[in-house]
Amino acid sequence: MTFVDTAPGPVRRTLRAPGVRVGGLALLVAVVACTGLFAGRGVTPDGVRAVLLGAGGDPTAEHIVLQLRLPRVLVALVAGACLGVAGLVLQSALRNPLAGPEVTGVTPGAVLGAVTATGLGLAGWESPAAVVVAACVGGFAGAGLLWLLTGRDRGDPEQTAVYGVLVSAVLAGLTAVVLLVAPGELGSVVQWLIGSTEGRVWQHWNLLWPWAAFWGAAAWLLAGPLTLLRCGDEQAAAAGLATGRGRGAALVCAVALTAGAVSAVGALGFVGLLVPHLALAVFGADLRVTLPGAALLGAAVVCGADAVAQLLSRLLATALDADRLTLPVGALTTCVGAGLLLVVARRRADER
């Protein structure tokens, strides 16, 4: 039996549009990943090409490309995907467009956990598994503190935003206290405070990708409840959703994804806040499509920013004659993200 597609042309185009956009984003991710492989120092583009094509190359070039650059790119991609999905889940569950991981206590809590564990000598960059545990504990503690403070106002986006900023400020202050108590650890934790992909190896990748895959799949399974929560608690309850349980499950996924990203690359500013807005603008309100879109966009943003940071580091090192000068990717995402947020805020103010 042969089925004939009798749907009108505009309908068919609408049905295909999400797939085309996802395919375009996947191509963009592949492009920025390749750019990241070629952007670093120590090996020329021809040397990178020779290693990737298996056409030979000296052992040093093979080590840099396969043991340093490749896991760095993969970790950047997955960490960006985690932050993009976590931000969209938070904004949907809390019905707050400013509810990124950075301003809800999740990222500051994860950073505090990692910094505290490092200060106590329990974790470090050489022990990523311990960092994941410490970051998760801190992230859940930050989210739990926000949950307790909001109380019955959890469904109020404005109150949640206010409490989130306060909780984030408190946790950032506690992190500063830890650094004062253990000043000798400043050099080893500054990467968590700013956000960096420098020194990422296969051990970080092997720990990050199963964690990201599990919690990313869990977030996608919550796409239906999250879509209802975006409409408001009354509408969600009328549709038969237990709003408290749905919101709690969503927050667990968001905290877990954020903690995994922070434990791998540190606190990358504004990625989890701005990527969800871009994903919603590109894919619309159907979170079954928008959540994977946010993952791809987050991956492209972080990996692309890392590639740009490496290129800028090369230019600055040449201009300033400083071979060891490195621009952290977190500094770039924070500066660019803050600038974009100011532009959007000014445009909305002018429209009013």
Automatic annotation (TrEMBL):
Any stretches that span the bilayer, and where are they? 20-39, 73-94, 129-149, 161-182, 208-229, 249-274, 325-345
* Family annotation (CDD domains): TM_ABC_iron-siderophores_like (cd06550)
Its chief place of residence is membrane
Say which domain of life the source belongs to. Bacteria
Q: Does the keyword Glycosyltransferase apply?
A: no
**InterPro entries in the record, alphabetically?**
ABC_BtuC-like, ABC_transptr_permease_BtuC
Is Transport tagged as a keyword? yes
Q: Report the locations given in the UniProt record.
A: Cell membrane
Q: Could you tell me the keywords of this UniProt record?
A: Cell membrane, Membrane, Transmembrane, Transmembrane helix, Transport
The membrane topology of this protein is: Multi-pass membrane protein
Q: Which PANTHER family match?
A: ABC TRANSPORTER PERMEASE PROTEIN MJ0876-RELATED, FERRIC ENTEROBACTIN TRANSPORT SYSTEM PERMEASE PROTEIN
Family membership? Belongs to the binding-protein-dependent transport system permease family. FecCD subfamily.
Q: What is this protein called?
A: Heme ABC transporter
| Taxonomic source organism | Streptomyces badius
